[in-house]
Design goal:
Rossmann fold
Length: 319
């Protein structure tokens, strides 16, 4: 691969150049921003090692200029001084960085970043999709449709609820939302945390996880799990005439409102960041785990829920 090194310090340039040549890559080096932009205009590079101190300008401006210099995107590894707190990683990612390296550099870290870059570029070049993300997003859409049904049922509940309806609600919230989707997202969150910690040295209290709304997402997961169990208990009490239909009505309202807000939060904050840490190896591993969840619950049952949601939409004129 063709690698461009943008670094103003000679010792760092030499270390990177030697590491790249040992790995069999073609290397070009520049020591200021003017030469960097010239090199990017003249040739295509698969990987760019960019020092945050290369220019006197804000590095975010440099990243944006790099991003718009060529039609072909380079995989940008931003190198930052040790212990720096000046660079907001989220803003850097949005500006065009793909990965980070903290100085002082060492050969093991350089090899690790190159491995990740090769996987990411290979995924992009072969047109591979991030399958676990797509599966979760498809299930989000299904759960939104479930929320729409619950909303209509919630408004129509008065004095009496048909047993067939409440049995389906209990089953759908417990099986589809908890045992299928929530179980997959547990694996997904663990993968995101492990990859972010391994690649960037992040910890669960860092700004990255804060911007991903990780803590709130986990709290909502716990609350939804708790509410699913409460729905089951309330439905049982309703069948035994211990509570009135209004109790179910209020519980459904709270549940659907929280679930909708939770889905929105994940798609707005968590999913975009998680994509940055999703390589082919992680994707494959997650799909195996997702398959095991589907197998455990029963693929036929999951398909049945999907058909029931479609039928419910038709019956309630939601289509």
């Amino acid at each position: 691969m063709k690698v461009l090194i943008g670094e103003n310090k000679r010792s760092t340039r030499t270390l990177l150049k030697n590491s790249m040549e040992v790995l069999g890559h073609e290397v070009n080096m520049v020591k200021d921003e003017h030469d960097l932009m010239g090199a990017l205009k003249d040739e295509d590079y698969e990987i760019l090692f960019l020092s945050s101190t290369l220019s006197k300008r804000d590095v975010l401006e440099t990243l944006r200029d790099v991003k718009h210099t060529k039609d072909r995107d380079s995989y940008v590894i931003l190198m930052t001084p040790e212990g720096t707190e000046e660079i907001d990683m989220i803003e850097a990612l949005e500006a065009g960085a793909d990965d980070f390296l903290s100085k002082p550099l060492n050969r093991d870290l350089i090899r690790s970043r190159m491995r990740k870059a090769r996987i990411s570029l290979g995924v992009k070049e072969r047109g591979l999709t991030v399958e676990p993300m797509e599966e979760l997003e498809e299930e989000h859409e299904l759960l939104r449709r479930l929320c729409n049904i619950l909303e209509v049922v919630h408004y129509r509940i008065k004095e009496e609820v048909p047993e067939k309806v409440i049995d389906w609600i209990e089953s759908a919230t417990m099986k589809l939302e908890q045992e299928v989707h929530h179980e997959k997202e547990k694996y997904f969150l663990i993968s995101f945390i492990e990859n972010a910690m391994e690649e960037q040295g992040e910890d669960p209290d860092s700004r990255l996880f804060s911007r991903a709304s990780l803590k709130q997402v986990e709290e909502e997961h716990e609350e939804l799990e708790k509410m699913s169990k409460e729905i089951k208990e309330i439905i049982s009490d309703y069948k035994e005439e211990k509570v009135k239909a209004g109790v179910i009505r209020e519980m459904l309202k709270d549940y659907k409102d929280l679930l909708r807000a939770h889905l929105d939060r994940e798609e707005k904050f968590l999913f975009p960041l998680a994509r940055r840490y999703m390589d082919e190896e992680t994707s494959t591993e997650l799909m195996h785990k997702f398959d095991s969840v589907n197998e455990k619950v029963g693929r036929d049952k999951i398909q049945k829920f999907k058909r029931q949601i479609s039928k419910g939409e038709e019956t309630l004129y939601l289509k």
